[in-house]
C-alpha cells in the first residue's frame, strides 16, 4: 500500500469513527431530551382520545392529563390526537405516534377490538400502552377506569328510585345502551340489568351508539311501538344520548318521565335541575386523568406499577392487565352541591344560567 493509499484509508477510518461517536452521542443525548413537537422523543407520551362529541374529553381529560404529566415530569411532553369517532383514524394515529418516537401511549379506544393490531404493533416497537377509560384489546401494560358494572348498577338503582311506586315487574322501561364496539357499554348494560331485571319490564332495548341523534330516533321508535302512555322510565347509558331522548320525550308531550344518564355533563346537570333528566353518574375526570398520567410516567421511567394498578382484569383478547378502578357516584338533584359543585367541576353560576335560575332556586342551588 503506497503512502497516498494509506492516507485515504486512515482518513476514511477517522471519518467513520467520528460518525460512530456522533451517533452514539446523539443516542445518549436523546435520553436527556424532552422530545415533543413533531419529532417525539424519549420523554414523549402520547394521548389518544376517541371522539370530540363527548364533552369531557377535550374539556377535562386532556388538560388534566397534560397538567399531571408536567407536574410529574417537567421535561416530558404530551403528543395529542383525537380520533373524531373514527377507528381507522385512531389506528393511523397510533402508527404516527410510534413513528414520532413516543415511548408510552395512553389510549381511550374508539373501537377496542379494531385497535388490537395497532397496539400490538406499537408494543412490538417497544412502546408501552395504557388503556384509558376503555379496556382496549391487545398487550396493554395497564388500564385505568371506573368500575363500569357499578356505573350501570347506579344508573339502574337511580331509575328505580325515580320511578318510585311505578316500579313493578309489569312497568315498561326503555333501554338505550351505548355503542357495542365500546367494551364499557357492555359493562354498563350488565350492571343496569343487574339492578333492573325482575323489578321492571325491559320492553324496548337498542343501542344508541353514543349519539344523541341515534338515541332520539330509538326513543321515537319505542314510543311508536309501546305507546307514549305505556312507558314508565327510560335508561340512557350516557348524558349525550339522554339529551336527544329528552328532546324526543318533550316533542311527544311526555314530562316527568324518569331518565338516567352518565358523565355528569353540564347540560345533564341543568336538565336534572329542570326536571327533564332525573340522574347521571359522576366519574370524576381529574382522578382518572391523574392516575393515567402517573401510570404513563412510571412506565416511561421503567418503574414497577403493581402498587398503582393492583387489580387484574382480563380483556376481551385474553390479556391480563394490571388495572386501577375508581369509584363512581350517582348524582340527582339532591346532591349536585355535594358532588360536581364541591369538586369544582362546575360553579353554581355555570349551572344556574338565566334559563335555569328559577329551577336552581327551587332546588336550593341559589
Q: What would the average pLDDT be, to the nearest integer? A: 90
What portion of residues is helical?
40-55%
Counted beta strands: 12
Low-confidence stretches: 1-41
* Sheet with the most strands: spatial strand order: 2-1-3-4-5-11-10
Backbone shape: globular
Structural class estimated from helices and strands: alpha/beta
Rg, rounded, reads 25 Å
Count the helices. How many? 13
Describe this structure in words.
The chain is an alpha/beta fold and 366 residues long. Helices cover 46% and strands 16% of the residues. It has helices spanning 3-30, 55-72, 87-100, 116-124, 148-163, 183-196, 212-226, 239-251, 266-274, 285-300, 337-341, 348-351, 357-363; strands spanning 44-49, 77-82, 104-107, 128-132, 142-146, 172-177, 201-207, 233-236, 280-282, 311-314, 320-326, 329-331. The protein has a seven-stranded mixed sheet, with helices on both faces. A three-stranded parallel sheet has the order 7-6-8. Helix 7 packs across helix 8 (239-251).
Keywords:
366 residues, alpha/beta, 7-stranded mixed beta sheet, 3-stranded parallel beta sheet, 12 strands, 46% helix, disordered N terminus
Summarize the structure.
This protein has 366 residues and is α/β, with parallel strands linked by helices.
What order do the helices and strands come in, and which of them pair?
Elements (H helix, E strand, L loop, with lengths): L2 H28 L13 E6 L5 H18 L4 E6 L4 H14 L3 E4 L8 H9 L3 E5 L9 E5 L1 H16 L8 E6 L5 H14 L4 E7 L4 H15 L6 E4 L2 H13 L14 H9 L5 E3 L2 H16 L10 E4 L5 E7 L2 E3 L5 H5 L6 H4 L5 H7 L3
Parallel strand pairs: 1-2, 1-3, 3-4, 4-5, 5-11, 6-7, 6-8
Antiparallel strand pairs: 9-12, 10-11
